[in-house]
Amino acid sequence: MMGSMSSCPFCLIAAGSIDADIVYSDDQVVAFRDINPQAPVHVLVIPREHHANVAELARADSEQLAALLAAAAQVAESEQLAAGYRVVINTGGDGGQTVDHVHAHVLGGRHLTWPPG
Ligand code: AMP
Ligand code: ZN
After folding, report:
1. Could you say which of 42, 103, 105, 111 is catalytic?
2. Over the chain, what is the mean pLDDT?
3. How far apart are CA 29 and CA 33, in angstroms?
4. CB of 92 closer than 6 A to ligand 1?
5. For ligand 1, what atom is nearest to the CA of residue 34?
6. Given Cys at both, which of 43, 44, 96, 100 links 90, Cβ 3.0 to 4.6 Å?
């Protein structure tokens, strides 16, 4: 599924129809603070186009996938996460994905444990 879906909360954020604390945006991606932060810095990076998960995005448009990861690195820099950070893309039910519009979590500002739960 590509384009924009009116039933998708992240499509609505990308369109400006739902408020979000946006920290970065360009013609391909939008980055905004997670509403339920799990670390001092917790930003979500999404492609403006709707793709359900990272596998679908990779299949459909590798340029947008690269833009997503480049924006995650840009956010880490602007949020001053030089000490380290984590980029997470939960995928599917067992992966903990709850919003079916692909998004990269950028987490940092504290030491992150491994393995994740
Ligand atoms: P995931 O569980 O990987 O699908 O992550 C979905 C994330 O989206 C969760 O961390 C939620 O807290 C976050 N989230 C859901 N709705 C919003 C919203 N309207 N604005 C900001 N973050 C949101
Ligand atoms: Zn969407």
Report:
1. 103
2. 97
3. 14
4. no
5. 22
6. 96
Whether the predicted model's global pTM rises above the 0.70 cut: yes
4 Cβ partners below 8 Å, 6+ apart?
A: 11, 14, 15, 48, 49, 50
d(CA 72, CA 9): 20
Which CATH number is 9-108 given? Answer: 3.30.428.10
Residues 6+ away with beta carbon under 8 Å from 54? 65, 89, 91, 102
Residue 16 near residue 26 (C-beta atoms within 8 A): no
CA distance 29 to 25: 6
Specify the pLDDT at position 3.
75
Over residues 65-103, the pLDDT tens digits come to 999 999 999 999 999 999 999 999 999 999 999 999 999
Ligand lying closest to the C-alpha of residue 11:
2
